[in-house]
Amino acid sequence: MTRRLTNASPIIFLAKLDRLDLLCLGVNEVLVPSEVLAEVRAKRDDAARQTEARLGVWLKECPLTRPELLRLLPDLGPGERRVIAQALQEKVNSVALDDLDARRTARRMGIEPVGTVGLLLAARKRGMLPSLGREMERLRSVGFRISAPLAQEALREAGEM
């Protein structure tokens, strides 16, 4: 069984696009740290409702049982620290993170990161989305920040430039 751990940002933004199921691309199960799940639930919005609907289906809450792993990651935000620590704990080699520093840290630790844009790109390559450019515009309209170079690289890779 292949698994991925996710942080709040991919959950929230994919839910805002009604594309939360893209978190499952390439994996059978998505784990979410308890603290990250609490962060998503705190807003009581559509992202929280969509997340709750998938809990126990392909999304599973995952508690941290080895908190000493957090000491390996002092320079990251709390959610990012939990995701990477729990990936190490669970021996999961894929994480969904949007924070650049966290993605770099994950790579250094042998964990493959994918972000919200990367999941949209993968869906576009599989023919699941008609246009990556439109999805990135929708992302921007709901508050997602993406650098121009990353947007151009993703569009180029999708064959839309």
What does this structure look like?
The protein is an alpha/beta fold and 161 residues long. The chain has one domain: Rossmann fold (3-Layer(aba) Sandwich). Helix content is 48%, strand content 12%. It has helices at 8-16, 34-41, 46-54, 78-90, 100-108, 116-125, 132-141, 148-157; strands spanning 3-6, 29-33, 59-62, 94-96, 112-114. Helix 5 links the parallel strand 4 and strand 5 (112-114). Helix 1 packs across helix 3 (46-54). The chain starts with a strand and ends with a helix. The mean pLDDT is 95.
Rg from Cα: 15 Å
Oligomer: single chain
Q: What's the helix count?
A: 8
* Strand segment tally: 5
Low-confidence stretches: none
- Our count of domains comes out at 1
* Major beta sheet, strand line-up: 3-2-1-4-5
* Principal-axis shape: globular
Kindly estimate the percentage of residues that lie in beta strands according to DSSP: 5-15%
Query: What is the CATH level 1 assignment?
Result: Alpha Beta
Order of helices and strands: EHEHHEHEHEHHH
How much helix, percentage-wise, in residues?
40-55%
Structural class: alpha/beta
**CATH topology assignment:** Rossmann fold
**Overall residue-averaged pLDDT value:** 95
* CATH homology group: 5'-nuclease
Summarize the main sheet.
5 strands, parallel
Q: Kindly report how far apart the N and C termini lie.
A: 36 Å
Instruction: Assign the CATH architecture.
Output: 3-Layer(aba) Sandwich
